[in-house]
Design goal:
It is built from eleven helices and 14 strands. By secondary structure, it is of the alpha+beta class. The protein has four domains: 56 residues, Arc Repressor Mutant, subunit A, CATH 1.10.10; 51 residues; 91 residues, Roll (SH3 type barrels); 77 residues, 2-Layer Sandwich (Alpha-Beta Plaits), CATH 3.30.70. It has a five-stranded antiparallel β-sheet. Helix 4 packs antiparallel against helix 5 and helix 4 packs across helix 6. Keywords: DNA-binding, Transcription, Transcription regulation. InterPro entries: CBASS_pafABC_assoc_protein, DeoR_HTH, HTH_11, PafC-like, WCX_dom, WH-like_DNA-bd_sf, WH_DNA-bd_sf, WYL_dom. Pfam families: HTH_11, WCX, WYL.
Amino acid sequence: MLRLLSLLQTHRYWPGPELSDRLEVSPRTLRRDVDRLRELGYTVDAVRGAAGGYQLRGGGSLPPLLLEDEEAVAIAVGLRTAAAGAVAGMDDWSVQALSKVLSLMPPRLRRQMDAVASQTESPGPWEGAPVFDAAVLTTLAQACRDGELLRFDYTAREADATHRRVEPLRLVSLGRRWYLVAWDRDRMDWRSFRLDRISDPEPTGQRFRARELPAEDALAFVQQGIRQRPQRYAVRARVALAADLLATQVGRWGTVTPDGEGCLLEMNVDDLDWPVMVLAGSGADFVVESPPELAVRVAEVAARFARTGAA
């Protein structure tokens, strides 16, 4: 019965014969174990007939969960991270949930969790990072998991709120922001939506067949959209550092090409703080070619550091 619960908690639909084969039990035993789970408070939907099967769905209350060792450690580490996150209201709830998990966690798993936490450095939430309601995150995540059509209001940059009907695919956490990748039914195209601009998300109960995303995955789709989106500043700077060394710091947020004994850095950004951090962290001399605002910002930061060093 515990193995059955573990399979049902994937929330996929399991045909009866396939589930019996996986568990190596008869259909009669399978039906009996499903009935036992229902008695324990789990809501298991059943479809009769030749194509019949079972699927676990959320009920009125949360019944006990069955976790593998690795899953328990991952949840505890994730709750620690969420406790310091930028999702409004999530920090307090994460602390409460973490305390419950730790109280039941065997010592061997707690040691694994402490090892992961002690060897991982996290900068914590970005100052000024957009904050959104935790209920928005959970509603969108459930719709992605269940393949359920969503309605919500969306306020794009420098635009009025519009009503959207989308087929949600995946949530993406990138940099300081969260994104929803979804097929927009009204615009008949794929879109990425910032979660801090979404309000009043509402599942419709209508299911849909997943479409093929025109990218390697949801993360690549969001990154591609960011690169193509017009940004406020087009940054160009020549850095006296090997291109491969600077590229490791820039990652996918910019382009680094060899330039003589150094390299050329190009970035499209809305905020100049990130290129300032990259240039300062390079530990090399550099010349700002554009925009002029970046040269001014670098001079301001340099003067601030000079005053601190002279104090």
